[in-house]
Amino acid sequence: MSIILDIRNLTIALETPSGLTKVLDGFNLQLEEGEIHTLVGESGSGKTLLAKAILGFIQPKWRITADRLWWRQQDLLAMDTAQRRLITGQDMAMIFQNPASYLDPYLRIGRQLSEVIARHPHRWRGAQRRRQHRQLIVELLQRVGIDDIDAVCNSYPLQLSDGVAQKISVAMALAHRPKLLVADEPASAMGQYTRSQIYEQLFRLNTEYGMTMLMITQDLTTMMQQTQRLSLIYSGQLMEVGPLKQVLTEPAHPYTDAMLKMSFLDSTHPPKTKLPTLPGSIPTSQSLPIGCRLGPRCPKAQRICVQRPELTTVQQRQFACHFPLIEISPHE
User: Fold this and answer.
1) CATH class of the region 3-227
2) Of 8, 13, 119, 312, which residue is the least packed, with the fewest Cβ within 10 Å?
3) Coil, helix or strand at residue 227
């Protein structure tokens, strides 16, 4: 498998009244062609910020640096706006966590879907073009579980429920079978049945078309059956990344261990007893700890943790911890 997205030492600093704040701090990520890679972390850990940086949705007050931010060996940071927009439009798509805020409130849904389809090259003209657009819109909406096609197409975004708006966002993202799909909690506003329906469709596209997927979530259990590799992020720092089976059976980082214990908490946990959570809460961007940002909450933290640990590579995975939960051979 070839690596199509290669991110090394990515840092995103935001301008604040007190100066620059590194909300994403030296993050690494490599996506192989055709894989499903899951990024797990608590709210405020920088997952959505990373996704927007990949697709070029960058704000003026962001300061982005990286040793590499490459798409198929092309340096995304070296591109001008037009070049970046072309790659994003043709090869990448994103499903946002809050879709209603990304839909145009002044255009009906049918018009917005038609405009998304029209951005890409095709051979249709005149009446044939309108018929083909209509056919594709119907297919896309049916694919994401929308049956009342006419009513939805004639509606404005504010007339739709959050669940339906999310389905529209998924349909738009899938319109041209992008080579990379970044899904930020793609079914967060839906019921269990609809959630399963959406994920099933996404996984089918991965199988049928080899679409690479970066699935961003707080719910690890949803992705258990499909993801090949897992990354865990905390407060803008990469904690651990590796093949799913290795990470699940032998977590190397204390944060990974805590996340797994909470994700797979079952009925055998004694009632009215303390849950296996880390003490404290994720820090705000105004109060980021120095060194390892998990330090103030980590059960294994010691004085050296005020120095940020380097990424350690063991076989096919990496982790950043001074006191990992696994033994490291001298040659590793």
Assistant:
1) alpha beta
2) 119
3) coil
SS3 category, 242: strand
Which structure tokens are listed for 281? 């809460």
The letter for the amino acid at 44 is G
Ranges in the chain, pLDDT < 70: 1, 120-129, 189, 264-276, 329-332
pTM: 0.89
Query: What residue has token string 């007893």?
Result: 273
Q: What is the pLDDT of residue 280?
A: 86
Strands 62-65 and 3-16 turn out to be: antiparallel
| The predicted structure's pLDDT at residue 6 | 97
Is residue 200 packed enough to be buried (19+ CB in 10 Å), middle (13-18) or exposed (0-12)?
A: exposed
Q: Which tokens hold the place of 141?
A: 């909406």
> One-letter amino acid identity for 6?
D
Residue ranges of alpha helices (H) inside 210-298 are 244-249, 254-263
Structure confidence at residue 268 (pLDDT): 55
- The angle formed by the CA atoms of residues 85, 89 and 197, to the nearest 5 degrees, is 140
CA separation, residue 32 to residues 1, 3, 36, 279 (Å):
6, 4, 9, 35
SS3 content of the chain, % helix, strand, coil (to 5): 35, 25, 40
> What does the radius of gyration of the chain's CA atoms come to, in whole angstroms?
21
Q: Which residues lie closer than 8 Å to 173 by C-beta, 6 or more apart?
A: 93, 94, 95, 181, 183
Where do we find the tokens 């911890």? 321
Determine how many CB atoms are found less than 10 A away from the CB of residue 25. Answer: 19
Q: Do 242 and 65 touch, CB atoms closer than 8 A?
A: no
> pLDDT value at position 257?
92
Can you say how many angstroms the Cα of residue 289 is from the centroid of all Cα atoms in its chain?
A: 24
The full set of domain ranges for the chain reads 3-227, 232-266+275-332
Residues 48-87 have pLDDT tens digits of: 999 999 999 988 889 999 999 999 999 999 999 899 988 9
Position 123 scores a pLDDT of 46
| Contact (CB, 8 A) for 12 and 22 | yes
